């Protein structure tokens, strides 16, 4: 006895489309998808601390075959850490690989009077290098062990103040 087949065969084009759809959907994850990982846990899987993202991520998408990602916040997020003012847009995009975030869009830092986009973050042992194009700055990874909160950064309860150790700003030539 054989398996029951539909009386009309599936066209090879429809079959290929179904396989492609399955492959594409299985390589893209989101918080509400089949994985139970949060955006913060995904950062950790790529060897980054959770504090690179503020509290309040509502969802994310990650294409594991290319590393392209999108992270979504419910509102624009700004806060100050030491003398740096940071701004996160509602959508942050880029490419993630182990120890490297590149092609970043949606995160800015105010230096003096100018807003500059953070384009790359590289982890080198216990240091994170943040690049804004021709300039970069290094910070200890441990400064990002906790997530900042929109509006107040790490000093939300006014009980303890958190300082970030700043190494000098390095200009690429």
TrEMBL record:
It comes from the Eukaryota. Residues 1-33 form the signal peptide. InterPro entries: At5g01610-like, DUF538. SUPFAM superfamilies: At5g01610-like (SSF141562). Pfam families: DUF538 (PF04398). It comes from Hevea brasiliensis. PANTHER family: DUF538 DOMAIN-CONTAINING PROTEIN, T31J12.3 PROTEIN-RELATED. The keyword Nuclease does not apply. Keywords: Signal. Gene3D superfamilies: At5g01610-like. Coiled coil: none annotated. This is DUF538 domain-containing protein. The keyword Protein transport does not apply.
């Amino acid at each position: 006895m054989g398996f029951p087949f539909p009386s009309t065969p599936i066209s090879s084009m429809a079959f290929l489309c179904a396989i492609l759809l399955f492959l594409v959907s299985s390589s893209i994850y989101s918080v509400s998808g089949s994985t139970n990982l949060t955006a913060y846990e995904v950062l950790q899987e790529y060897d980054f601390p959770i504090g690179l993202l503020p509290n309040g991520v509502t969802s994310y998408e990650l294409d594991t075959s290319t590393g392209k990602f999108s992270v979504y916040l419910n509102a624009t997020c700004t806060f100050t850490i030491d003398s740096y003012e940071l701004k996160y847009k509602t959508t942050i995009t880029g490419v993630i690989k182990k120890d490297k975030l590149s092609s970043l869009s949606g995160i800015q830092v105010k230096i003096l009077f100018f807003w500059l986009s953070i384009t790359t973050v590289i982890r080198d042992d216990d240091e994170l290098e943040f690049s804004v194009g021709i300039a970069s700055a290094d910070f200890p990874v441990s400064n990002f062990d906790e997530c900042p909160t929109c509006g107040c950064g790490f000093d939300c309860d006014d009980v303890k103040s958190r300082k970030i150790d700043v190494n000098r700003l390095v200009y690429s030539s």
